[in-house]
Amino acid sequence: MSDQTTGVPQTVTRAPREAAAGEEAYLEVTDLQVQFPTADGLVRAVQGLSYSVPLRRTLAIVGESGSGKSVSSMAVLGLHDRRVARITGSIKVGGREVVNMSDKDLEGFRGGDAAMIFQDPQSSLHPYFTVGSQIMESYRAHNNVSKRAAKERAIDMLGRVGIPNPRRRVDQYPHEFSGGMRQRAMIAMALVNDPKLLIADEPTTALDVTVQAQILDLIADLQRDFGSAVVFITHDLGVVAEIADDILVMYAGTAVEHGPVNKILGEPLHPYAWGLLESIPALTGEPQPLHPIPGTPPSLLAVPSGCPFHPRCEFKDRVPDDWCTTLRPDLIPRTADLGRTSRCHLKEPDKVFETEVLPRLP
Amino acid sequence: MTAATTPAKSGVRSVPGAPLLELDGVKMHFKAKGDGLLARKTQWVQAVDGVDLTVSPGETIGLVGESGCGKSTTARLITRLLEPTAGEIRYQGVDIAHMSERKLRPYRREIQLIFQDPYSSLNPRHTVGTIVGTALRTHGMVAKSGELARVQELLEVVGLNPEHYNRYPHEFSGGQRQRIGIARALAARPKIIVADEPVSALDVSIQAQVMNLLESLRQELGIAFVFIAHDLGVVRHFCDRVAVMYLGRVVEEGPRDALYEKPQHPYTQALLSAVPDIGVVRGVPPKNRIRLVGDVPSPVDPPSGCRFRTRCWKAQDICATEDPALIERAPAQRVACHFAEPPAESILAETA
Amino acid sequence: MKEEQAVLLYILKRVLSAISVVIVTLVASFALFFFAPTDPAGVICGPRCTPERVADIESSLGLDQPKAEQVLLYMKGIVVGREYSTGGVVRHCDAPCLGYSYTLGQPVTKLIGAALPVTVSIVIGGAVVYLIVGILSGTIAAQVRGTSLDRFVVGTTLVVQSIPYFVFALMIALYATFLPDSRYHPFLDNPLLWAGGLLAAWLTIGVTNAASYTRYSRASMIEALGQDFVRTATSKGISRRRVVYRHGLRAGLTPVVTIFGIDLAFQLTGAIFTETIFNLPGLGLLTLRAFGQYDLPVLMGGVLIGSVVLVLMNLVVDIVYTFLDPRVRLG
């Protein structure tokens, strides 16, 4: 690789994303509920989730384990086993309803109009089939083409996701790829049918930070080329800041805050989002003590009454009449800014953030 | 906390004036599979290949690097779960690199390990009391009569309910299980704790709780830490000094602030530059980010000379022929690079 | 290294290690039989026997030679053949000579040669039955896990497994009278008669083993269908059948192959019940008779064949694995 030793590093500048507002929603989720009846009781994994994503925009769904971020996204692709999952509400993709879609229609929809990339490329690719054959299978499931044509398409896609020497790589098995290359191959497989909706479920969590940077760049570039709507699931707020237009913060199966990224991360209004920001050590400045959220996330078998966050919330005493413990807040605009919503009874949350939370952020 | 801070009588030898822990040219080469009747050529994975490191009492040193860089192997070498292929591991001046299991025992007490996965590192069939109590008994820390009291005291120190000593690990959450692991390590009253990714399996809010616990233990008990993590923010938060590893070697090592603000090795610069930063949304102008090309080479057949040269934009002919030594480039900041220099502009965005 | 070369090299290595295992077994069997404090000549001669007669038999068997000499003679017999002489009659035993059975008056090789096709026919036919039934029902049960159909399949396997094997064989022998008479006809003479005569034995082996294969396949498929790559396959929009049978079964079958290899080896060496009940002159029957008559050469031959079969099956499993799993092939 002597050709790259020019003395100057290859650099990328990630400019703030320009919001392509006003477009019609491609993915529209309305009052989604996902429940799993188990021997221990009903697991309420997602409770009344609503959001929408237009083409060319990226929505990041953030939350901790058990927040419902993955469960809700798998429902968008109809990936839950209907015998174990109880799904109600509406999921519209390009105008088509996915909840209760027939198996036959789901087959045409999955991988065609909407595709998904998963967290662990090591376990998500079949170890016994070549990378090429797995991409070809996806292509041929939606296009009536010869094997030869499908293979050419697979090679083309591998090249587009930045895999060097794709003509040789296409016949290799996943274990012959590095972690980053595997995730590139997964992305090639997901995009082989030009899907209009891409769901990325923690696609960089299993990767090293320099590889993560490469994959984030790749997803952003490809979105620009393909013009798709992207739902990006992650727990890493730094990643969100780099890649998303909008953000949906989930806690215990519900959205607690929703809006444009710079607003939600720059001036969050929900105490859970404050707690998250206060838990992340900074890379610059004098290290400050962290202020973690006390306690642990609730069991989805017994979600607390009222606001599900109230047992861990340090601001619940500021709300009158035990609202927090008895009354579930709505996801509505809480300030003059109507472009963002949050689910918290606290009065004037913007002022509380500015005067009390902001000064102690790490 | 009084009992926990009392220094235990040490059954270990020590050389006066020697640092607490010193790694000197430590190497660990694993035999790669594929040997056998016909494969004459045995291959060696050079997981750790010449690491020098010094830890002073009460100091916290962070080891960072990407998967395969050898940081976890280094942890297992320090705790002597592995016997190094070459080099010396000196504890208070005494080389424990090849010490027999019997002689090693008192040293094992003073060097404790906390694992990444709180789910698999606790025996599911033992109560918390047994888990922590076994650690006490193994090292003969307390008389049998005082065992329960000490177990409860330790549980309280790590922020668990002392009445829960008769519960099983599965009855605790992930963060609480990591606290149990910490209590077990503290039972031996160690002078040094090697923490291998202790918070990376935990959710963000729980991670901060455990970080604060470790921080308070460090301040109150004066335990030295070797803290291994891939999260650069976490390492910065916790460590006085940081060593960056790449492909089995330390490429840069120095005081925290110097390393994060004026990293001199190109790999450190690229690593820091790759961390997604939340500052962008707070109106901080976006920075130029260094993007590394390609993958980490195989540790079976690492590049000649400088191991980073195949991905380095500064690489010259000398990098292939001459292995750069880890030398001091700034006060207490050592860098292994022929062309080490601080970055022209700050790598990290300043918080507005 | 090219992929084909790597595979060949791997197989070669496995064959060499298999051969060394067979040699070790050979020596161990010698120790077991030839060094045992027994009196085979006395047993062969019977109760009214003169010492001269015993000496004669011992010399004809080579038992009067030093032990080490006996081992060498036996080894030599395997490679180039040897001769036995009793009472002035010389009998030639062609290589590979595994000894000479005096009770049956034939070289062991010949006896085994006649019995082996019978056993192989029984076992392979039975295996076809239990593999098809077991894997199919296991795969189906895995797909409908938790439903009443699944519970029915699992319940049935429990019932079948709790019935002793020979009870099953007896029931088939006594009640399944519509089946053709159980008798061995060589396959090459008349395939139809061959199959008909073995049907009862196949059913016995097939049904009893199908229960465990149903359970193996079910467990293995449940695990396979829960893998991330199965979810990926589903997300691609291919049909459920293709997801299950191409992606799931391919991974789910791999552990079943291992069990099958070992099972097959054991059945080949010990289909004793089936052969006895259905009176089929296979290896099991041969060694059982040899045991009762103290026919040492035949017993040794049986042990040897058994160990070779076992090693061979392990080898086959390993090689099949390289074709199933590229990580073995190329790792």
UniProtKB/TrEMBL annotation, chain A:
Q: Where is the signal peptide?
A: none
Q: Kindly list the GO molecular function terms attached to this UniProt entry.
A: ATP binding
Q: Which Pfam families match?
A: ABC_tran, oligo_HPY
Which residues are in the ABC transporter domain?
27-277
Compartments where found: Cell membrane
The highest taxon in the source lineage is Bacteria
InterPro entries registered for this protein in UniProt: AAA+_ATPase, ABC_Ni/Peptide_Import, ABC_transporter-like_ATP-bd, ABC_transporter-like_CS, Oligopep_ABC_C, P-loop_NTPase
Gene3D superfamilies in the cross-refs: P-loop containing nucleotide triphosphate hydrolases
Q: Does the keyword ATP-binding apply?
A: yes
Membrane topology note:
Peripheral membrane protein
- Keywords in alphabetical order, please: ATP-binding, Cell membrane, Membrane, Nucleotide-binding, Transport
- Keyword ATP-binding applies: yes
Main location class: membrane
Q: Which family does it belong to?
A: Belongs to the ABC transporter superfamily.
Identify this protein by name: ABC transporter ATP-binding protein
From TrEMBL, chain B:
Alphabetically, the GO molecular function entries are: ATP binding
- PROSITE patterns in the cross-refs: ABC_TRANSPORTER_1, ABC_TRANSPORTER_2
Q: Which UniProt keywords apply?
A: ATP-binding, Nucleotide-binding, Transport
Q: Which domain of life is it from?
A: Bacteria
Which InterPro entries does its entry note?
A: AAA+_ATPase (IPR003593), ABC_transp_ATP-bind (IPR050319), ABC_transporter-like_ATP-bd (IPR003439), ABC_transporter-like_CS (IPR017871), Oligopep_ABC_C (IPR013563), P-loop_NTPase (IPR027417)
Among SMART domains, the record links this protein to: AAA (SM00382)
What CDD domains does this protein map onto? ABC_NikE_OppD_transporters
Domain called ABC transporter: residue spans: 32-272
The keyword Nucleotide-binding appears for this protein: yes
| Keyword S-adenosyl-L-methionine carried by entry | no
Q: What family is it from?
A: Belongs to the ABC transporter superfamily.
This protein's name: ATP-binding cassette domain-containing protein
Q: What is the lineage of its organism?
A: Bacteria, Bacillati, Actinomycetota, Actinomycetes, Micromonosporales
